[in-house]
Amino acid sequence: MMSSSLIDRARSVMPGGVNSPVRSYRAVGGEPVFIKRANGSKIYDVEDREYIDYVCSWGPMILGHNNKKIAESVKKAVDYGLSFGAPTEKEVIMAELITSMVPGIDMIRMVNSGTEAVMSALRLARAFTEKSKIIKFDGCYHGHCDSMLVKAGSGALTLSHPDSLGVTGEFARNTLIADYNDIESVRRLFAENKGEIAAVILEPVAANMGVVPPRDNFLAGLRALCDENGALLIFDEVITGFRLCPGGAQEYFDVRADIVTFGKIIGGGMPVGAYGGRKEIMELVSPLGGVYQAGTLSGNPIAMAAGIAQLTELKENKDIYLRIDRMAESLEKGFKRMAKELELTLTVNRVGSLLCVFFTKEAVTDFKTAKSSNTKLYAKFFKHMLDNGIHMAPAQFEAMFVSDAHTEEDIEKTLEKAEKSLREMKNGGDFA
Ligand SMILES: *Cc1c(COP(=O)(O)O)cnc(C)c1O
Which terms in the GO cellular component ontology are assigned (predicted)? Predict the structure, then answer.
């Protein structure tokens, strides 16, 4: 089986041959590689080529691929049946794990994706505040629910139609756009929409326009503005949750949110999302309160088995975070050294084990500066790396994810191939 023959079959029966746009390689050109299996820090394509993987399923595989404890937990659960549509002990264990690890979360509701978590959190925030408008940030991605497909990052950004067809003006009207890291732009929106803002939602570390860290006091400033104006602060921690530390961005930056959304890591590779918050807010959710939200497969036992195994590992072995941060730091330092030695216009952003290399000389602090990156150069770099057995995100505006399965040897090899690739690009006149 070859990737090239699969993509032809795929394209005739699926839009673009994929079930999620970024996988199509539209942002970097060329034909997508089809993956057969993965183990540890490596993935293998259908032609058995090996790659060191920095996509990590877009974040969930923080322990590496095919982690033994997760795999065993799932296999055991499968023997008991796939789905019951009735309460299970695993859902209780999962909820106890999340509420014990994340600050300020008394109650949690499991759903099936990050998109669903955000959609439900926004409904809840509107119900709790009895207000309608939401402030989001240019370049932040919150899944594909209608009201959030306005100035979204990630695939929406890469494919350059941030405002999706099919999203009507009514949905967009209640979404106000501020600039990331610009507290004044938020203050202005609050002033112009007095008493109408239900919530401010953001990625506490933006990781869908590349990686953009929050400036000092940006998150605390948002907290204060929300408090002054009776609005809720929603941290979309679908990427940062359990990625930066066991308590996520709230613990990492010592700022509390009112509602937190999760996805990716909490499913251990299975399709899972969740949203949680203080008791008084969560008690508004059905069946206790009037905010309707349900799911046939929500809290699915197989998904819970994977998530419980992963979160337990992260809770009990906090040194995992020291290790993945150190690996990512080595990558950061390596890229920065190369930029200097080869005199390349590169900007490297990193927060913990999230990393991004931008092809610009500008400091990347928001969506505007992120867009200054030369995406053609990123595309070339991506192809060089892929040919050299390194799997990076097939689009500039995504994060590199480091997992606990990455070894120092992997990092060294990655940097060696990166240097070779960048040198070839420079010699070919790409940076002229
Ligand atoms: C991936 C992502 C989502 C959407 O999650 P899905 O599971 O893909 O629906 C939402 N918010 C952020 C910050 C994400 O990175």
Answer: cytoplasm
